[in-house]
Amino acid sequence: MDPRGGVTQIELEYMVHDEDAEPIALPFPLLEKLADYFSDELIIGRGGFAVVYKAVLDNGVLAVKRLFNTHMHEEQFQGEVECLMKVKHKNIVRFLGYCANTQENISDYKGKMVMADVQQRLLCFEYLPKGSLDGYITDSPGELNWRKRYDMIKGICEGLHYLHQNNILHMDLTPGNILLDEDMMPKMTDFGLSTCFEKDQTGVITKNVAGTRGYLAPECYNKEIILRHKFDLYSLVL
């Protein structure tokens, strides 16, 4: 541990190579440094609520997801961490840790210098070098022959079955949210819109369903629905 508190870079490198390591709280200064202070040159992905950076260690690489407008999306951050802490499967991107940092900075507000809370919310994952599935979907086999395509479909189904067995709905299953490792094994990511059921629940009533148009089940456009496993299956078969 860092004498000032928090995980050191050496400990984080150990976690990257230890498949059994559990996700933990990570210090903001460490993640900021590894992402080269969030350099645009290290951006490897963007979403509706976050930017993903490639972070280089002395002995490994990881991905750091930095949420923006965190004051508006605190509930999503907490929900994503809750879901990620519960899952460990070969077809789900491995979650290494999270950072919830808040500090006071002096800034100009309408001509006055005031103290304001600055929130940093970050998630840390294994780095997958082949990018997302949407970059490989074509009409011709190309790099993905039919056997490889079958294996990928099977892997996605197994990962989704695992989530449902653990009472988790992904709710944004798209090719862009399926990443590929060096062997082209598919791994689901982006649990920002996911829902975790209680143990005995079979559905959750909601009036607000977000997701990617074209992958949302038609029922999701109603004013009030009951979220069920079948909504992920609708996205899967598209």
From TrEMBL:
Record flagged with keyword Hydrolase: no
Top-tier EC class: transferase
Amino acids binding ATP: 65
Reaction equations catalysed: L-seryl-[protein] + ATP = O-phospho-L-seryl-[protein] + ADP + H(+); L-threonyl-[protein] + ATP = O-phospho-L-threonyl-[protein] + ADP + H(+)
EC number: 2.7.11.1
PROSITE patterns: PROTEIN_KINASE_ATP, PROTEIN_KINASE_DOM, PROTEIN_KINASE_TYR
Domain annotation Protein kinase: ranges: 38-238
Record keywords, A-Z: ATP-binding, Kinase, Nucleotide-binding, Serine/threonine-protein kinase, Transferase
Keyword Transferase: yes
GO MF terms, alphabetically ordered: ATP binding; protein serine/threonine kinase activity
Full protein name: non-specific serine/threonine protein kinase
